[in-house]
Design brief:
TATA-Binding Protein, 2 helices
Length: 85
Amino acid sequence: MTTTRAHETVFSVTYDTERRARIVADALGPEVGEIDDARSTAAVDREGDAVRVRVAADDLVALRAGVNSWSRLVAVAERVGALDG
């Protein structure tokens, strides 16, 4: 994320295995940049068994919306990843 925004939050999810974290991070990757808007951006990275999502926004309403969107995306990626075994 290169844009400076007034507000930022990071949430991290730790998984049982590095493989599971990789599956979730890989599922989220294509969404980065696709759901950004004029008021918010997001980035996803993985380190070992943890996936981190950083959401930055111009205002608190946009930050809350971004966090809600990315939380739902993580939940969907976890459910879909569970189908992989």
